[in-house]
Amino acid sequence: MTRMWMVRGEGGSLYDAFRERGVAAVGWSQLAADAKPGVERKQLIALYQSAEPNAKQGAVISSASQVWRFVNEIQDGDWIVTYSPANRLYSIGTVCGPAEHHPEWDEQGLPLTRKVQWQDQELPRDSLSDSTKNSLGSTLTLFEVPPSAAAEMLATLKGQPVPSAGKDDADEPIADPLADIESQALERIKDLVNKLEWDDMQQLVAGILRAMKYKTQVSPPGSDRGKDIVASPDGFGFEHPRIVVEVKHRKERMGSEQIRSFLGGRHKDDRGLYVSTGGFTKDAYYEAERASIPLVMWTLDDVVRELMKHYGAADPETKQIVPLKSKSLHWPV
């Protein structure tokens, strides 16, 4: 039976590297050289304990077990899925090779890889049901995707009707239940924020900046002249830093052309914040690195993380846009 596995390198930050190099990878460079097909799980546990003597026993077993599964349990022809939190996209491919040690890729977080033939088409998170989204929320680097979730993802990718959920899906063990809850909360809040209308998204970004102790001016619709929000200590933009903000609440990624257009209208003393809930292309990040002014780029993931970080200091208007209840953990109402 063909199975599907989630492999998420460094929290999803290696998504583009996976697709560009035609691989899926896990870290744990301490184990990569010895993680060969047929290696015993106990051997990997012992190696990890030796390399990390201060690590907690649960973390040792979880880490070594994930490496063991990557090497021995995943089979050629199995499905692999990986996720980009920044762009809210899943990529699906098929395994086509054994585990390989790449010490030259160690610093890039890719010491242990398997060749994967990735599908050209990517799958937006919003195209999936809530139950499937939740089943993909584990913080583990590697875990098996429940059969019903795998079936839905493959059907959605092919534009076919979603099959009925089965009753034999087994829950995957998690290394840290609290971390897993935090991850699910983050993704559910992102789902909620992503459904906002554009004007509410603009007001939300302005509210986050106010919670960060800035005063804001928000442009009315259709008259921003390259800026949606101006944030500054005095509220007028006279005192530094004067932060000029552009908000793009769209599904598609923003590219280098949009970044150049934004930068072209900026004063040399400005500071820039470009918000794109659809994410950014690699060329857009390159353009930002060459910018003549300091420029920060926020994806939907960044917006929600900053909202959660500063929610306690947010004003009532901002909390009304995204109601969250919180004691020690923010959760969508």
Set out the fold topology.
Elements (H helix, E strand, L loop, with lengths): L3 E4 L7 H7 L1 E4 L2 H4 L8 H11 L5 H17 L5 E6 L4 E7 L4 E2 L10 E7 L4 E2 L5 H6 L6 E3 L2 H12 L18 H18 L3 H14 L3 E4 L10 E4 L9 E7 L7 H9 L5 E7 L5 H8 L5 E4 L1 H11 L5 H6 L2 E3 L3 E3 L1
Helix pairs in contact: 3-4, 7-11, 9-10
Low-confidence regions: 170-178
Helix and strand element order: EHEHHHEEEEEHEHHHEEEHEHEHHEE
Secondary structural class: alpha+beta
Question: What's the CATH class label of the largest domain?
Answer: Alpha Beta
Proportion of residues in β-strands: 15-25%
Number of helical stretches of at least 4 residues: 12
Question: Mind telling me the C-alpha Rg?
Answer: 22 Å
The portion of residues assigned to helices is 25-40%
Mean pLDDT reading:
89
Number of DSSP-assigned strands: 15
Q: Categorize the overall geometry.
A: elongated
Distance between the termini: 40 Å
CATH topology grouping of the largest domain: ph1033 like fold
Write down the domain tally: 2
Second CATH tier, the architecture of the largest domain = Roll
Q: How many strands, which pairing sense, and closed or not: the largest β-sheet?
A: 8 strands, mixed
